[in-house]
Amino acid sequence: MKHIVVLESDDAARGDLADYLMRQNFRVTQLSEHLHLRQILSREIIDAVLIDVKSEEDIGLVKDISRLIDAPVLLLSTNRTSEDERVRGLEAGAADYLCRPFGYRELSARLNVALRQKFNPRIERQRRSYKFCDYELTVQSRIVTRSDAHTVKLTTAEFNLLTAFLNQPRQVLTREELVSASRVHAGEIYDRSLDALILRLRRKIEIDAVTPRLILTERGVGYKLECDVQFDERPKIKR
User: Fold this and answer.
1) For 156, left (φ over 0), alpha (ψ -120 to 50), or beta?
2) How, if at all, do strands 48-52 and 73-77 pair?
3) Are residues 229 and 131 in the same domain?
4) Beta strand pairing status for 123-132 and 229-237?
5) Peptide bond into 72 cis (omega under 30)
6) Residue 109: which domain range?
7) Exposed (0-12), middle (13-18) or buried (19+): which is 64, by Cβ within 10 Å?
8) What is the CATH number of the domain that holds 170?
9) In the chain, what percentage of residues exceed pLDDT 70?
10) What is the pTM of this model?
11) Which of 67, 92, 118 is the last residue of a domain?
12) pLDDT (tens digit, 9 = 90+) per residue, 77-95?
């Protein structure tokens, strides 16, 4: 499943776009601030970034992204955008520049074109591992190994949920964020089933699922991972 990051300060516009992309079987991370984008890019494997352009800072962000990841950036803007502004965005490294109003079908088509054009068959990103507390998660196999060599295999939903925590350790994640991260296909995980999924994951990685020490409940908000995390990610060149 391709992972798309949507950077948009408007909550309604961001939510609508993310909902559409998830229905197209993309995994979507929603962000409202540049700071959070840089954090995600340094930790996650990203396939494309969509940025709503509101200032010159947004244009300059494209260059920063190119230094961190090899993924297409699509810029979205208002219908008042001048030709010079669009050219600056493309020259900064954006794969495409869409001006509102545009249809989601057009956006999806342009996104898929950018994903195909950016693909390089010689470069494969070696999946990272996460080390946290007494555990290591190997991303490719989706297996959690404890220091005593005990291993557990995660389902796709459990894996998506755990990596959401591991990518933002010691930060409270809302129920909505966790539902979105855990979704394998659109509509598969709902708010009412999140608690059951949390419990299954706790049973696999907690010493005592009834009295958890890693995944803590923040009542009325969501959950957080109370643990420091180390990341491992490096490119692998095919010969």
Assistant:
1) alpha
2) parallel
3) yes
4) antiparallel
5) no
6) 3-118
7) middle
8) 1.10.10.10
9) 86
10) 0.52
11) 118
12) 876 678 888 888 888 888 8
